[in-house]
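Summary of Year 1 activities. Much of the first year was spent building the evaluation harness for sequence design. The harness presents a backbone, in tokenized form, and records the residue chosen at every position. We chose the following record to illustrate the format because it has been used consistently in internal testing since the harness was completed.
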């Protein structure tokens, strides 16, 4: 039972925590009201899209007006009306679809090869620690080398065709996939491996039933990064030497001071990259859904 001295101490502590009363004020009878966190009202999707479209239209209108009154040099920056005319000519009379298909093929092939080979190389490190210790420094060294410096050498080896662009895109994506997959291999719980071995599983069964399913989320998580790196690799290869592609179009337009064509190629390249990113995001969600099942 609580003594009078204990009750007195608790009452004094409770009184000490309460703020002093003003003269003539009443102490609130109930507990103090808790403050709510500020909650921002979420806009509907149509309103967000409308604001984005309006912002884009305002930027284009301001650009056109600034070029018209001379605030922006139209020779170096072009103007939206001239870019639209060049875009129409590029798709009706130019090689727009040939260049888009060329860059798209190089990107997708480099993305697929780099992701697949890098994932297999990262998984192979699980089989031997000594093998991983020997090979990993070379992989990291290759990652630190600027791929732009290797592009002319790759062009000389593979030629000016599509294979050289695929090789550069593969080189950019392979190392990222390798290091990410190896990080997933090292993150596997050793107790799970011991459990499999204690139940009589072979090493191949542990690799197939435990290691690969555990590493798949790591491999899937790098897909969005790899698609951007593969596109960068294909564009770099087209800058060095190519007969087709959006990179070749940008380089040609820059050398001939056709600024409108540069903007057109950049716009088409941005649209292509967004489309591929959306496609890879859908593939990632589909693969993750299958893993959950």
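For this record, the design step produced the sequence shown next.
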């Amino acid at each position: 039972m609580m003594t009078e001295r204990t009750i007195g101490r608790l009452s004094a502590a409770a009184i000490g925590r309460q703020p002093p009363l003003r003269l003539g004020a009443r102490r609130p009878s109930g507990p103090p009201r808790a403050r709510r966190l500020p909650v921002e009202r979420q806009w509907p999707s149509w309103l967000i899209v409308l604001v984005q479209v309006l912002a884009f239209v305002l930027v284009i209108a301001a650009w056109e007006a600034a070029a018209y009154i001379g605030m922006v040099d139209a020779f170096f920056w072009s103007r939206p009306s001239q870019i639209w005319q060049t875009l129409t000519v590029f798709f009706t009379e130019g090689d727009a679809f040939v260049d888009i298909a060329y860059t798209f093929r190089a990107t997708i092939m480099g993305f697929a090869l780099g992701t697949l080979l890098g994932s297999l190389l990262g998984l192979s490190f699980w089989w031997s620690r000594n093998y991983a210790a020997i090979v990993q420094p070379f992989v990291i060294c290759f990652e630190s080398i600027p791929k732009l410096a290797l592009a002319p050498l790759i062009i000389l080896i593979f030629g000016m065709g599509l294979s050289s662009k695929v090789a550069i895109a593969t080189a950019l994506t392979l190392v990222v996939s390798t290091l990410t997959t190896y990080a997933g291999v090292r993150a596997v719980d050793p107790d799970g491996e011991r459990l499999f071995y204690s139940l009589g599983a072979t090493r191949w069964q542990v690799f197939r039933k435990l290691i690969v399913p555990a590493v798949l989320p790591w491999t899937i998580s790098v897909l969005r990064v790899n698609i951007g790196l593969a596109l960068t690799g294909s564009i770099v290869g087209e800058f060095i030497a190519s007969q087709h592609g959006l990179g070749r179009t940008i380089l040609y337009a820059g050398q001939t001071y056709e600024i409108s064509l540069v903007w057109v190629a950049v716009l088409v390249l941005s649209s292509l990259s967004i489309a591929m990113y959306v496609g890879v995001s859908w593939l990632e969600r589909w693969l993750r859904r299958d893993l959950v099942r």
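Residues 165 and 237 are 5 Å apart (CA to CA). Quantitative recovery figures across the full test set are reported in Table 2.
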